[in-house]
Amino acid sequence: MHSWIDGQPATAVNLHNRGLAYGDGLFETIAVRAGKPSLLELHLQRLALGCQRLAISIDLPLVRDELLRFASQLGDGVAKLIVTRGDSQRGYAPGVGVAARRILQGSPLPQYPAVNAEQGVRLFACQTRLAEQPLLAGLKHLNRLEQVLARGEWQDAEHAEGLVCDSHGRVIEGVYSNLFMVRGGVLQTPELSRCGVAGVMRGALLAQAPALGISVQVSDLALADLEQAEEVFLCNSVYGIWPVLECSALKLNWPAGPLTRKLQAVARTLLDT
Question: Which of 28, 29, 84, 260 is catalytic?
């Protein structure tokens, strides 16, 4: 694994970095194939939105250039871009004139079992609940303790992902994926204005759906809605789409249906271009 800090090879971060002290920053996890970062512009758009919401000043063209150079050296793998507010002394208040830090880490592509995409996965129903915070909703910020706790709830190989709800029991997402369901031929995904991560692949699929003649609905969903689903699938910007076969909280099975397979091909194309 190789890493850069502010465009230069480095392996250590300043102990006063606000990302380390307070989780004060954002990150993007970007698949890299043949030296090219997948869905780069969408990742940069989300990063720009997050920086705007958190009032972190960032030079986006510089970040793009560094990502392209870093990916060309990585070849095939995953580039994790972390942007923190920078270094400052003790205290929550950010220092005046503090420069944001850009951290890039490269790692191999994860070797997920082929059966996950080909046949589907089982979801573990997590007890950990996501807190509502509209100011942070949708952002891929560095505060991921909820996901750490949720992922610690299962260790078996039977479940490939976890299903996470908010404090009111609304279905939100997977631990590291976004969730979609199909009901009455309509593609539905949870509303993420209170909590959750607005994934890049989720956004890409929502943008592609109208041109494919697929009706889309973004709304609050409950476990009872999943019980009425004809198809359920997960997505993210590294593995694409996994059909969901069943969930430990529900005594139902879902097929890897035609709409899931259609969008799975779309996701595969998006990741390869």
Answer: 29
Q: Is 161 exposed, middle or buried (0-12, 13-18, 19+ CB in 10 A)?
A: buried
Distances (CA, A) of 141 to 26, 47, 50, 115, 271: 4, 10, 8, 31, 23
Q: Are 118 and 103 part of one and the same domain?
A: no
Per DSSP, what are the bridge partners of residue 103?
5, 82
Q: Tell me whether residue 80 is one of the annotated catalytic residues.
A: no
- Point out the domain boundary residue: 66, 84, 107: 107
Distance CA 93, CA 256 (A): 49
Q: Which of 84, 140, 161, 260 is catalytic?
A: 140
| Cβ–Cβ < 8 Å for 81, 30 | yes
Active site residue 251: no
What range does the domain containing 53 cover?
3-107
- pLDDT tens track for 52-80: 999 999 999 999 999 999 999 999 999 99
Q: What is the pTM of this model?
A: 0.94
- Among candidate residues 173, 189, 231, 260, the one labeled active-site is 173
